[in-house]
Amino acid sequence: MRAAVEKVRAAYGEQDPVVVEVANAEQLDEALALDVDRIMLDNFSTEAIREAVRAAAGRVALEVSGGVTAETVEAIAACGVDYISIGALTHAAPALDISFAVTPAAGKGGS
What we know:
Number of helices: 5
Oligomer: single chain
Structural class: alpha/beta
Mean pLDDT: 89
Number of domains: 1
Order of helices and strands: HEHEHEHEH
CATH superfamily: Aldolase class I
């Protein structure tokens, strides 16, 4: 993780935010030691989220993703994270296929 963040910072400096996704407390500890702008907590339980908020102590923005639903978002927000991603909002959205193909009317210059 350190090598990847160092490569990104060397290539882009401070112009773009660096977000690191972590899946457990060990990865969180590693990410907290790096120069990142946000840490994404992937599929953390609410108790693990509370622990992450305590560990980060406001040093870096925390975002929760994975497994977030309309039913769990309030409890997650109460943990004190900065951002919450709810993929269920877009996963369940039906697609709408609209075509703007135009067919010229017969005898009106169409070929």
